[in-house]
Structure formats: C-alpha cells, structure tokens
Design brief:
The protein contains 6 helices and 14 strands. The protein is an alpha/beta fold and about 300 residues long. Helix 2 links the parallel strand 2 and strand 3. The longest helix has 18 residues. The chain has 2 domains: about 180 residues, Rossmann fold, CATH 3.40.50; about 90 residues, no CATH class. The strands form 3 sheets. A 9-stranded mixed beta sheet has the order 7-6-5-8-4-1-2-3-9, sandwiched between helices. The chain has a 3-stranded parallel beta sheet with strand order 11-10-12. A two-stranded antiparallel ribbon has the order 13-14.
C-alpha cells in the first residue's frame, strides 16, 4: 500500500483513535480528527492512519476509511456490555507496538480521555489535552489550548521523544472526506485485554437539546435573566434561526428551567463554537450584538443594551 503524500511508509505518523456512536456508526468527532490528521500529514507529520476498536468495527471502519488512507479495524465481541475506554486502549496499544512512535489524536470527551490516559500509561508517552487546534511546524506538533475558560490561549509542543498523545475538542476542524477511500486492515481482538473490564449495568438517556452543544457550531445561551423556563422559548427560536443549539448558565440549570446536558461554562463544559449569545442578567432583550474577531471557548458574542 502506498503511503500518503509526503509520508514514507514506516515513518512516524499521525494516528486517529476513532469512536463509534451507540448504533455502531462513526462518531462525528472521529471524522474531524481524521481530517485534522490528513492536514498534519500533508504538512510533513508522516502518514495519517486510524485505529478503530469496537464489538463490531466493520461498518464504522469503512466509514473512517473515507477520510484516511489506512485504517486498522479491531473487532472484539468482548467489549459488548462493557465500558469502552480502557480495553480499547489496550487493543490500540497492542496494534501500535510495531509502529514507530508518532502522534495520537483522540477525542476530548469521556471515552477519549479514558483512552488517552490508559495509552499514556501503557505506551509511556506524553499528553496534551483539550486542544482547540493542532498544527505541524518545524518537525513537531504545535498544540493550541485554551485556559481560564478560554480567556488565555497557549501553544505547546512536546519535548518527549516517544508517543505524543493529543485530545482534541469537537469542532476544531470541519470534517471532509479524502479524494479516495483508504484501505481497511481487519484484525481480531483475541485474548484478554490486560486491563480490568467494567460492566455496564444500565444506560440512561439524558434529555437535552435537539442539537448537542458539544457538536454545535452556534450556541445561544440563556441565564437567570430570562425569568423562567418559558423564557427559553425565545432562546430556542433564536437558536433555530441561527441553526444552532440552546445552552444555559448554571443558575438556569440549577433552577430546573433546562436540562443539565445544556449547561455551558467552566462548571460543566466549554465549547469551541463559532458564536455564543448569552442573555443579560437583567432579562432585557439585547438590542444589538458585537462579534469578536477570533472567538474561542464559550465567550464569543457579547450583548449590548439600549439605555
């Protein structure tokens, strides 16, 4: 199999740890990571490849191959009914054992964090978390991260010579398929994974927004000032018009006006959305809006009020 443009086979590369949805399809964030991996490969980071571990990895692996030239698909029926992160990381570490140490991209959600932490221990690597952007410059990954609720942006590189793990926030890039589909290498996940298996005894579906605030590129958020749950009808209308999701401050969530899944901010989660519209504490309707030139994290759109 030919290596990706600008990447030699067997050279350190960029690996994407892909995740699946509950129905077995490829997670949206994995398409974004694969697109990011291709851009790093084109900049000189080595071959872009993906690894996907699931009880039945077949369909999702084929979908991942529409983004990457090489995909390693590991089906392990023993994962069914168990927490995914740690046993998946053990399978991934075994698959990477014969590969030269490169860069690993994982999602910044709960499963991605579990995988990154376990890989960090097994591979004796180094990790940077919650990246909002990753570039390749001067022969190394340059990782951008927001701190203090996105008020300060840092750029870091790795001094570690081994595996370098980066967890990347949703919407860091827009997913786009490659010009041609890649090759899927099917492997069996035989034997015990070597890490404790955590059995899932129940699954609870949490009510929330029609559009997840984790995936949304536009978030319209309301707070205490909207006066009650009926005030979120206005917020929802604006979000619908902007093609976005409804978010809420902690005060609104604690008051029971909106589900916890829609809370934004440092107390719950921050978002790499392009726009966010917080309501005023006074409850008055904003008269005009000012957009920041380079929005990051959760404070993107500032409201102004008529006197």
């Amino acid at each position: 199999m030919a290596a990706a443009d600008g990447a030699a086979a067997g050279s350190p590369g960029v690996w994407v740890v892909a995740e699946t949805n509950a129905d077995g399809s490829l997670a949206k964030s994995s398409g974004e990571l694969a697109t990011l991996a291709r851009s790093l490969s084109e900049a000189g980071a080595g071959q872009a490849a993906g690894v996907l571990v699931a009880a039945d990895a077949g369909a999702a692996a084929q979908e991942l191959a529409t983004y990457l030239p090489r995909v390693v698909a590991i089906s392990d029926a023993g994962l069914a009914g168990h927490a995914w992160g740690q046993p998946a990381a053990a399978r991934i570490a075994a698959a990477l054992a014969d590969e030269p140490p490169g860069t690993i991209l994982a999602g910044a959600g709960p499963d991605g964090r579990d995988v990154a932490g376990t890989l960090l221990a097994i591979l004796d690597g180094a990790v940077l978390v919650n990246a909002t952007a990753v570039a390749w410059a001067d022969g190394a990954a340059s990782v951008e991260m927001g701190v203090f609720g996105g008020k300060l942006i840092t750029t870091s590189t790795f001094a570690h010579a081994g595996w370098k793990i980066v967890t990347v926030r949703p919407n860091a890039v827009t997913a786009s398929a490659a010009a041609s589909a890649g090759v899927v290498e099917t492997r069996a996940g035989g034997g015990e994974p070597g890490v404790p298996l955590v059995k899932v005894i129940d699954r609870l579906a949490e009510s929330g927004a029609a559009v997840s605030i984790d995936d949304a590129r536009v978030i319209v958020a309301g707070g205490r000032g909207i006066g009650g749950p009926e005030g979120f009808a206005l917020v929802q209308d604006l979000a619908d018009r902007l093609g976005g999701a409804v978010g809420a401050t902690r005060a609104a969530v604690d008051a029971g006006w909106i589900p916890y899944a829609q809370q934004i901010g440092s107390a719950a989660r921050s978002s790499r959305s392009c726009r966010s519209a917080p309501e005023s504490r006074s409850g008055r309707r904003p008269a005009r809006w000012r957009m920041d030139a380079n929005p990051v994290s959760s404070g993107m759109l500032t409201s102004h009020h008529n006197p």
